[in-house]
Specification:
five-stranded mixed β-sheet, six-stranded mixed β-sheet, elongated, single chain, binds adenosine-5'-triphosphate, 14 helices, alpha/beta, binds magnesium ion, 414 residues
């Protein structure tokens, strides 16, 4: 229903380098994001190589089912730049020397005190009937053409030239044709600790307003729920977000631009709490995250990377006997690490982690991914047992993130 309000817009990226993984197609994502911010939506994106027939075929196919096609790449001066010729093929015309384009090239060369070679002149060979865009930044000439009911926009592949011409030529043209649209309101709810499938089940029966579209986006280790609504439906979006917020409860840790690190920092400040850390399997990752924020000295006192058993005893006063009896990876040792850190540093709250990140070191009783996270404050010390999936790096990331999330819950409940 929503889509019927929008012109159908397609993006076509041209270049062999896009098809062999050499260059990531950031042009397409930039166009998609920019149009979205202006209330337009891209319905499909395609990539083709520097092949005249393939480009012509793609243009014809996309034009047949779109109102506008935005093409980038292949407008340069070299033999492999064949987009203009392909455009002419698709439109059933031929390329001719475009005087305006030639003047642009001559002017560009004059400003840079360069000769205009015949090779450069190739860039002024444009399809008959093309209307030129201004390119203040480079030699390539962007242009527009009609094909059946569709408008085709051709932009250079060089990202910064393309971006400028999109903003200055394509967007105004779309606005002239389809009117100004407010930006589509959207909001991102960031969750942790709720697997995507569980979240899907939880939200399945939610009576979201029909205008509100909900998308799941895994940004390891976070799960983002992106809610979008058509322009002018901000209140509806807010209503939808409130429903989701209520349903996901404590799993929601941040919204939009907020991050877990920022949320934890703000809670520490608000509680006037100080923090110390005792890390084993994360090797200082949590401390690195905490201290990457400017102003962290207001709440962060110290962190110890106590990897060996000896270090746990020497730096955190964990009794050697306890480690021997329970194992370094145990709830008891996690608690002793956190209380030791808190006692020795004088912090309000201490967090500890000890676990088996793998790939070796697992056992039947404590497989790889077994992690204990301890948290000590003035009144108590608790340890949570976790079993994380994935390789060493993912186990470590999950450990650090879970520790921050536990700290967040603790600070909220204080
Ligand atoms: P030029 O006048 O520079 O030749 P052009 O229109 O022919 O312009 P291309 O040769 O296709 O553009 O690309 C120029 C450069 O821009 C490429 O080397 C590549 O690094 C970058 N580029 C091209 N297409 C894309 C894209 N879709 N996403 C990101 N970068 C791109
Ligand atoms: Mg080129």
């Amino acid at each position: 229903v929503v889509n019927e309000l929008f012109p159908k817009i397609a993006v076509l990226s041209v270049g062999n380098e896009l098809l062999c993984g050499e260059v990531v197609d950031t042009n397409a994502s930039h166009i998609e994001a920019t149009l979205f911010d202006h209330g337009f939506r891209v319905g499909e994106t395609r990539s083709v190589g520097d092949d005249r027939d393939a480009i012509a075929e793609a243009l014809a196919a996309l034009a047949a089912r779109s109102d506008a096609v935005i093409v980038t790449g292949g407008l340069g001066p070299t033999e492999d730049d064949v987009t203009a010729a392909a455009a002419a093929d698709a439109c059933g015309t031929r390329v001719i020397l475009n005087p305006e384009a030639l003047a642009h090239l001559a002017e560009f060369a004059r400003r840079l005190k360069r000769e205009l070679h015949p090779e450069n002149e190739r860039q002024a060979l444009l399809p008959e009937g093309a209307t030129l865009f201004d390119n203040p930044l480079g030699t390539a000439c962007g242009f527009t053409l009609r094909l059946d009911e569709a408008t085709l926009y051709f932009l250079p592949g060089v990202p910064y030239e393309m971006e400028r011409m999109l903003e200055e030529s394509v967007l105004p043209s779309l606005v002239r044709r389809y009117g100004h649209r407010g930006a589509m309101p959207r909001t991102t709810l960031k969750l942790f600790g709720l697997p995507e499938a569980d979240c899907g089940a939880l939200l399945k029966e939610l009576p979201l307003p029909p205008e509100v579209e909900l998308a799941y986006c895994v940004r390891f280790p976070e799960l983002h729920l992106i809610l979008r609504a058509p322009a002018g439906c901000l209140d509806t979006l807010k209503r939808g977000a409130a429903l989701v917020r209520e349903r996901v409860g404590k799993h929601l840790f941040a919204e939009d631009g907020e991050t877990m690190d920022a949320v934890v920092a703000a809670l520490l400040l608000k509680n006037k709490a100080t923090l110390s850390l005792a890390e084993s399997c994360t090797g200082g990752m949590i401390a690195a995250r905490i201290t990457s924020r400017a102003g962290s000295s207001a709440y962060f006192l110290e962190g110890a990377v106590t990897y060996s058993n000896h270090a746990k005893s020497r730096l955190l006063q964990v009794p050697a006997k306890l480690i021997e009896a329970k194992g370094a990876v145990s709830a008891e040792v996690a608690c002793a690490m956190a209380s030791g850190s808190r006692r020795l540093s004088g912090s309000t709250v201490a967090v500890s982690v000890t676990g088996i990140a793998g790939p070796d070191g697992g056992s039947a009783e404590k497989p790889v991914g077994t992690v204990f996270i301890g948290l000590a404050d003035a009144s108590r010390c608790e340890a949570k047992k976790c079993l994380f999936p994935g390789d060493r790096e993912r186990v470590r990331q999950l450990t650090a993130f879970t520790a921050l999330d536990l700290l967040r819950s603790h600070l909220i409940s204080r």
